[in-house]
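We include the pair:
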Amino acid sequence: MSRSLKKGPYTDEKLMKKVAKAKESGSMAPIKTWARASIITPEMVGMKFLVHNGKKHEEVLVIESMIGHKLGEFSPTRKFKGHAKKGKLSKVYGSSGRFEE
């Protein structure tokens, strides 16, 4: 369910203070954050963020097309290892779907 238009987009206050401070000083150092639910605003364009994914911080460079999305969308929390090769799974489990040796 989306957030009410009356409330406006959610952005973490501490994160926005860090963004304002970095813009003011002209610093290009990445900003470390745990606020995955924060919406990307136009002030964040061109900045680098280290977004926590539950294990480590993933570097995210914000570009114009990301405005309105959440920071967490660009730092996946699960590692995709790929699909099983065709026939490899069926050899282990057999045609019944149960483990057979």
Observations:
- The first helix runs from residue 13 to 25.
